[in-house]
Amino acid sequence: MPDFRTSASLAAVLLAIMAELATASPLPEGRSLEHAAIAGEHLAVSVFRPASCNIRAILIVLAGKERDSATYRDDSIPLARHECSLVFAPDFPISRFPVQQYQRGGFPASSPTAIPASLYMRPLEQWARNVSGEPHIPIILIGHSAGAQYLERVAAYVPGEETMTVIMNPATYVEPETETPVPYGFRNWPEPASLPDLKRYLSRNIAIILGADDTAPSLPSELVPDAVEQGRNHLERGQWAYAQAREQAEKLNVPFGWTITLVPATGHVASRMLASAELQDAVESAIRSASSR
Q1: Residue range(s) defining the domain that contains residue 285
Q2: In this structure, are residues 199 and 14 in contact, taking their beta carbons and an 8 Å threshold?
Q3: Which of UniProt's keywords are assigned here (predicted)?
Q4: What CA–CA distance (Å, rounded) separates 29 from 27?
Q5: Does 163 map to a domain?
Q6: Nearest Cα to 154, choosing from 1, 10, 6, 2?
Q7: What sign results for the dihedral spanned by CA atoms 164, 169, 172, 173?
Q8: Tens of pLDDT along the chain (293 residues)?
Q9: Rounded to an integer, what distance in angstroms lies between the CA atom of residue 287 and that of residue 58?
Q10: CATH code for the domain of 17
Q11: Which of 106, 102, 189 is nearest to 150 (CA)?
């Protein structure tokens, strides 16, 4: 197994994971529970398929630290019905995917043979296409809290073919610079690829959506020292990350693809974030943009 010190090693592992995918049975309408076999892992995936409409997008929803993926699937159903979109909420159990694998995406790899969990997202996207029979519609990734931290690492280090990544109320971000080490920046990332990957990260369609009242102090400095400067709470960190990314994009002269939106009168509550007009507007915008190409 490659040790992930080079981009070639990452690519080789990803190709090996993709080769394991198989086409599953067609999805029923309504709620269902499916299973995806990826890199020797069997992931339960809570699914919802709306009835009586032409599917417009695939929404892959990542749960918070409780890993309550079925609840996140259920809370996403109104959005799925409004946008006529499929919901896939993969379950990453804490017993198999502790904080370093989930919130930090598995980077840096804990051992030469450990597969960073972030590498599972691209195969999950392909699996969702296979099982849904929808090879061409846009894929939108949506994560809240711990799930948003996971998607931050996917967007920064190993993105797939998603049209947009929605980051809601994460505790930490990947800083778009090479002074802070992985998984909070790009220092120690494979050296030949760090700057191109950093530029790609800045240009990706990343929608940061924050609860305007998500201001409770969090993230004790002794737990995550590399992220202390990002802010005292979830709201501050999101605003800080967006400002840093915009400034870096200007400095590097690359297109800047991020947006930031606040959800009024909302704190760190996943159900309210998933039901927000701000998320619905972002998803609709991404679908319309993809369909116009």
Answers
A1: 7-291
A2: no
A3: Signal
A4: 7
A5: yes
A6: 10
A7: positive
A8: 344 545 555 655 665 566 455 555 679 999 999 999 988 899 999 999 999 999 999 999 999 999 999 999 999 999 999 999 999 999 999 999 999 999 999 999 888 888 999 999 999 999 999 999 999 999 999 999 999 999 999 999 999 999 999 999 999 999 999 999 999 999 989 877 789 999 999 999 999 999 999 999 876 554 666 667 788 899 999 999 999 999 999 999 999 999 999 999 999 999 999 999 999 999 999 999 998 87
A9: 10
A10: 3.40.50.1820
A11: 102
Q: Are 52 and 158 in contact (CB under 8 A)?
A: no
Q: For the whole model, what pTM was predicted?
A: 0.92
Write the DSSP symbol of residue 187. B
How far is Cα 165 from Cα 78, in angstroms, rounded to an integer?
A: 19
- Asked whether residue 252 is domain-assigned, the answer is yes
Please name which of 169, 113, 191, 164 lies closest in space to residue 281, comparing C-alpha atoms. Answer: 164
CA distance linking residue 257 with residue 285, whole number of Å: 13
Domain count, the chain: 1
